[in-house]
Amino acid sequence: MSLQRLLRTIGVLALVGLGISLYLTWVYTTDRVAICLGSGGCETVQYSPYAWILGIPIPTLGAGAYLLVLALAVLGLRGSQPAEWVVLGLFGTALVGLLFSAYLTYLELFVIHAICLWCAVSAVIQLFLFTLAVVVWRRFQEAV
């Protein structure tokens, strides 16, 4: 897969993650309950003490991270070869996103004892973003 195709795929995944994060931000800030296919886990997670950091809903932080990944992917698509700082930015943002998602998944499983379907999908997206960012980094190194 070419660098351009990898960056487009990263952009699409970031858009999906951004959509999920914006939906959950709306749910959190309007005191609604997320559509969660009857599991009830979303509401349990939403009203847990871990759903906000310094007064900011976790999904809002996710939206910011996905927006950053999207912007970096778009910047990487300009020209025939992305700049090194774009590739490093993608890798770093994807790594932080993956680690934070792993922490949140740990909280869901072992502390809150509930799984939010939207959060799980976001965590899977983060895993794919990180994997693709590693591939982009390797391809970039080969091309230099």
UniProtKB/TrEMBL annotation:
Compartments reported by the entry: Membrane
Keyword terms, alphabetized: Disulfide bond, Membrane, Oxidoreductase, Quinone, Redox-active center, Transmembrane, Transmembrane helix
Leader sequence segment: none
Keyword Disulfide bond in record: yes
Transmembrane segments: 12-29, 49-73, 85-104, 110-137
Oxidoreductase keyword on record: yes
Alphabetized Pfam families for the sequence: VKOR
Gene Ontology cellular component terms for the protein in this record: membrane
Domain of life: Bacteria
Vitamin K epoxide reductase domain mapped to chain residues: 3-140
UniProt feature coiled coil, ranges: none
InterPro entries registered for this protein in UniProt: VKOR (IPR012932), VKOR/LTO1 (IPR044698), VKOR_sf (IPR038354)
Mode of membrane association: Multi-pass membrane protein
GO molecular function, one term: quinone binding
PANTHER family assigned: VITAMIN K EPOXIDE REDUCTASE DOMAIN-CONTAINING PROTEIN (PTHR34573:SF1), VKC DOMAIN-CONTAINING PROTEIN (PTHR34573)
Family stated for the protein in its record: Belongs to the VKOR family.
Protein name as it appears in the record: Vitamin K epoxide reductase
